[in-house]
Amino acid sequence: MALTTSYACGSREQPLITQTLGEFFDAMAARQGEREALVACHQHRRLSWTELAREVDTLASAMLRSGLARGDRVGIWAHNCVEWVLMQLATAKVGIILVNINPAYRVAEVEYALNKVGCKALVTMARFRTSDYLAMLRELAPELASSAPGELRAARLPELRLLVVLDETDGIAAPAQPGALGFNAWIRRGDPADPEVPRTAARLGPQDPINIQFTSGTTGFPKGATLTHSNILNNGYFIGEAMKLGPDDRLCIPVPLYHCFGMVLGNLACITHGATIVYPNSAFDPLLTLQAVQDERCTGLHGVPTMFIAMLDHPRFGEFDLSTLRTGIMAGSPCPVEVMKRVVSDMHLSQITIAYGMTETSPVSCQSSTDTPLERRVSTVGLVQPHLEVKIVDPASGQTVAPGTPGELCTRGYSVMHGYWGDEQRTHEAVDPEGWMHTGDLATMDSEGYVNIVGRIKDMVIRGGENVYPREIEEFLYRHPMVQDVQVVGVPDPKYGEELCAWIIARPGTAPTEQDIRDFCQGRIAHYKIPRYIRFVQSFPLTITGKVQKFRIRDAMKDELGLHDQQTA
Asked: What is the structure's pLDDT at 294?
């Protein structure tokens, strides 16, 4: 039946999981036994489900024996590795709250994050490429040099007691550190048969918080979105259901684990379906990802659009056999239609899905499925997930709008976060009294319930009174044969309030001009949608997860043009 308002409720046919993550994992490991659970290509490690469960129990025991207890916060500051997923599962097993620290953070940011949530322990890489994590920690805590492992007392990190250093990063051994434990030495403190682990696990409930992920917009300090067993375990399960994952699937996860994409859409989608987790490298590398898909015969592949573009346009792309692929998820930022079509045709991902969400909703609210018609998969983010509700509201009035009308997307249900850690005011600003999470995203819903993300409310451009959605212009410009990637933003203008600006990455071997782009637009889109400013660039400013930082494009253009934001009434 056609919808009369932009409101949809997901199926309740399958019940929600009411176990804790530890209980669910133990049951899955018992069923899967010696089947392969985890492959870390860059670490040359393979673990069966039985081996993974044993290491998880050993680490959980080591945590308890180190004085950590249910409800304590433990940070992990690392790229993708076996130790990351061990930390994810072991902390959940004994009710310790895992705090995901962005590997791009520097001294001030990591100091804020650790103190905001009161981390009692931190597991970190020693270094990665040009980032020296231990040097940053020594700057924060010079007391490390004179501390015994587990007895740290640092003035700038008053809650931190234990620092654990991964023994290797990309095959490079970490030097011994005064005041710190090596990860291998730490895990050896534990016993896989420690009776305290099941005793602690038995006291946990599915609504207990087990994860904090920092999220922020373009202003203000990062907020610690706090998530429960129920939040992320159920979300991982229904994500896997949409992909039709099973024990024979092998999912390649090049997206970062510190982010929901890797941790929930990757790890937990596999763990809830008995599928094999494959890490191609510690951080994304297009060549190593293609190699892992071929060598491990992966059936699934995750990525943000920029990752898929990097793989498709890699000069050695044609050398790899990707015929085992069938599914995966493209998410993290709007998925260009033309890129999606190439992924389906050239990478054999005929059943790839699109997912939409945000950290505060664990993260996925809407997702297409493997049997969603291709035209729907390339033009929408699918339907609302089971046990969730979504609606599109007028940002000014809060009223639910008619189908096809743009408005703010709101989500309600099991996936909505426990809250922002230690920030009740901002929790209430984001989640209204009726339980709706206000996403800040502009979207439309059609009469069948399919949702299309138009953009961020703050990204909408108002030119001479006309509302212009950058996503629409980007999708149009992707059709140009010389355009590889494009981002559209609004910049201040004294006459119209705002004007459109397009940053374009040209396809290799082509050299489009501004006039080429304008001629392509002329007569095909409304005149006010044709970008006034067109710039050709080699790359876009990105976050570590591959999301484009549009505010930096906007700031660069304002600096170039000597523009300042217009004052609006």
From this structure: 98
